[in-house]
Amino acid sequence: MSQSLEAYLIRPAGKQSVMDLRELWQYRHLLATLVWRTLRVRYQQTVIGVGWAVLQPMLLAFVFTIIFGRLAGIPTNGQPYPIFVLSGLLVWLFVAQSFNTASVSMVANSHLITRIYFPKVILILAALITALVDFLCALVLLALMMVWYGIAPTIGVVYFVPMLLLAMMTVFGLSLWLSALNVAYRDIGHVLPFLVQMWMFLSPVIYPSTLLPPKYSFLYALNPVVVVIDTSRWAFTGGPPPAAWMVAVSCATAAFLCVSGYWFFRRHESTFADIV
Amino acid sequence: MAELAVDARELGKWYVVNENRFRRTLSEKLGRVLSAPFRRTARAERYASPQAIWALRHVSFQVEPGKVMGVIGRNGSGKSTLLRILARITAPTEGTVRLRGRVGALLEVGTGFHPDLSGRENILLAGTMIGMTPREVRRREDEIIAFSEVSDFIDTPVKHYSSGMFMRLAFAVAAHLEAEIMLVDEVLAVGDEAFQRKCKAKIRQTARDGRTVLFTSHDMESVRTICHSCLLLDRGKALKQGDVEECVAEYQRSQADA
Predict the structure, then answer these.
(1) N or C: where does chain A have the smaller number of CB atoms within 10 Å of the terminal CB?
(2) Helix (H), strand (E) at residue B167
(3) Domain assignment present for A276
(4) DSSP-derived 3-state class of residue A200
């Protein structure tokens, strides 16, 4: 064999390099396959298939409109409640779905971790991308609603894409922490539903972020979902744009979660197969 | 001399039996953290605890490119642990291994299979998971299907397969993996007698293809016929290594004693 062969060095746990992007690139096919598998399996043996990605948020928005829009009469800065809630709900469902699956992805895929080698971070990326596909499908619903209410998108649309990345980074960072902890401590699985619920109420999904007294703005901005949803509302329903300094705080939070999470995850990654 | 394909030095793998079970919950961990200042457990002491086991220790060996090394030993001697370390599934506690070339592991059948997907979809799924590119899988798909003998049901969900059909398809996918260094467990040979013969023939052919192979088996006849060198493990230690005949003889002696 004359072509230069790839060389690997196997060393004891905890001594790998922290960042190995080249290796991640080598495993891109595995990532694609994992995403494909999840989507394929999820919509197999269902009658309306991917329609569920649209139907679920639609039903939720309907229920929320009746309870929070009609009965509770939550203010919306003048926007019709259905489209107000949907523009936040879609972002939230994306965050919640990706967070829910990514945080338990190591345990859920233990049959793979104990049988083959691959960079485990791929499982988290796969969860994120899968949720993103559902989110993009559900955006169709929002577009239809905008046509129905005759609302034109604003310049905020341009900012929405980077904001979506901010949301993904947040989920990525948090999931790195929780999925690694979940390998050793199954408690995470029990805490998670509660955590997600709390997170939803701390985000402006069913109410506008302007409802909060300004003195809490800094604490509020520590949750990046706030500015992401505000941008979504700005882009698709013409609500007020988020403050630039709040966006900056959110970016810092997300960056901190990603860096610390990745460090923690890589430090423990090579022991997953023994513990999980 | 050509560069070594596998160069393992002083490999060791240490397991704690049972301890994980007790540390599974957060409260236990918190309790340990809080009481830590009052306990003094040195690393060396932990290694010596009765619940600690060296599944492998002080194992060193070299394999030249294109050679076949047999790994033999009784159940629990550390064969699987060794192959799992080489496949990078688990990390060693001490020691290093240098590998030159892509590593393909045929250690377990059915990795990556999903019951709800069809046989054809599972070929792609499992193939990618064990390290083939999607293009490689598609190129070899017909070959894999032919080998598995389940072509009539290839578009049926795998959950409707009989266990024999499932095992045959799973082995067929694994056996068509091409890597410069192959780790093969002959326990993989599955199915009825005829199919087992086919599996073993396929494994031996892999070994004769000029690839570097690490091969574990309980069948000394296979080891004698295809291996260039041998490693005899006993309770995690290398009892004998080098000459195939000597290792096999030693192994058979230990088997007769037991």
Answers:
(1) N
(2) helix B163-175
(3) no
(4) helix
Residue B96, pLDDT > 90, answer: yes
Query: Cα-atom radius of gyration of chain B, to the nearest Å?
Result: 21
- Contact between B129 and A185 using a beta-carbon 8 Å cutoff: no
Whether residues A115 and B111 touch (CB distance < 8 A) is answered with yes
Sheet with strand B52-63: strands edge to edge: A7-10, B94-100, B6-16, B52-63
Among B1-15, B113-127, B158-172, name the one with the lowest average pLDDT: B1-15
Of 3.40.50.620, 3.40.50.1360, 3.20.20.140, 3.40.50.300, the CATH number of B6-102+219-257 is 3.40.50.300
Range of the domain at A88: 22-262
Q: Are strands B94-100 and A7-10 parallel, antiparallel or unpaired?
A: antiparallel
Contact call for A33 and B134, based on CB within 8 A: yes
Which residues in chain A come in under a pLDDT of 50?
1-2
In a domain, A105, yes or no: yes
The kind and range of the H/E element at A233 are helix A224-237
Query: What's the confidence (pLDDT) of residue A15?
Result: 63
The pLDDT of residue A1:
42
**pLDDT at B39 > cutoff 70:** no
- Residue B21 is predicted with a pLDDT of 47
A1 CB neighbours in chain B (<8 A) are 65, 101, 180
Q: Is residue A28 part of a domain?
A: yes
Using a CB-CB cut-off of 8 Å, the residues of chain A touching B180 are 1, 5
Look at residue B104 and tell me whether its pLDDT is greater than 60.
Answer: yes
Two structure tokens written together for A211: 């409802």
Work out how many domains chain A is built from and give that number: 1
Identify residue B167 by its one-letter amino acid code: M
A273 touching chain B per CB within 8 A: yes
Residue from B125, B110, B117 nearest B153 by CA: B117
One-letter amino acid at A95 equals: V
Of the candidates B86, B89, B108, the beta carbon closest to that of A273 is on: B89
Tokens encoding A181: 């902890």
Q: Is A39 on the interface with B (CB under 8 A)?
A: no
Q: Which of A6, A11, A17, A29 is the mutation pick for testing B, counting most B CBs within 10 A?
A: A29
> At A147, is the secondary structure helix, strand, or coil?
helix
CB contact under 8 A, B130 and A44: no
Pick from B22, B59, B48: which is nearest to B241 by CA?
Answer: B59
pLDDT interval class at B66 (50, 70, 90): confident
Please, which residues 218-237 of chain A have a Cβ atom closer than 8 Å to chain B? none
Best interface-test mutation with A: which of B129, B158, B183 has the largest number of A CBs within 10 A? Answer: B129
Give the tens place of pLDDT for each residue, A64-79.
999 998 899 888 888 8
Residue A4 lies in a domain: no
Strands B94-100 and B6-16: antiparallel
Q: How far apart are CA B44 and CA B28, in angstroms?
A: 23
Confidence of residue B140 (pLDDT cuts 50, 70, 90): very high
Which of B24, B87, B124 is the closest to A117 by Cβ? B87
